[in-house]
Amino acid sequence: MRYKDLSGKEIVNVKKGARLGVLGQTDLELNEKTGQIESFLIPNYSWFGLKKEGESIRIDWQDIKKIGEDMIIIES
Question: Rounded to the nearest 5°, which phi and psi values hold at 72?
Fold first, then answer.
């Protein structure tokens, strides 16, 4: 799967029932040797999404349970 296929999907935590963000507004941690995605870093926004605040939320690749047409379901 390519990054462009993932971009724009909402990331939802199934345990908390919470929307965490949209992929495309996130940073990626890549393995330099293999080129595989290790984790997503979702920034914490405030002020109506205008200002980054606090620490980012880190989602490891193994926490992803399902990648659908519109959403990425995680369980962490």
Answer: -115, 120
The answer to whether residues 59 and 48 touch, using CB atoms and an 8 Å cutoff, is no
**Six-digit token pair at 52?**
């980054």
Helix, strand, or coil (residue 58):
strand
Q: Are 40 and 20 in contact (CB under 8 A)?
A: no
- The answer to whether 42 and 59 have CB atoms below 8 angstroms apart is yes
Integer CA distances (angstroms), 59 to 21, 47, 48, in order: 11, 23, 23
Q: Which residues contact 23 (CB under 8 A, 6 or more apart)?
A: 6, 7, 8, 9, 10, 11, 40, 72
Q: Which pTM was predicted?
A: 0.73
Question: pLDDT tens for residues 10-44?
Answer: 999 999 999 888 887 788 899 999 989 899 888 87
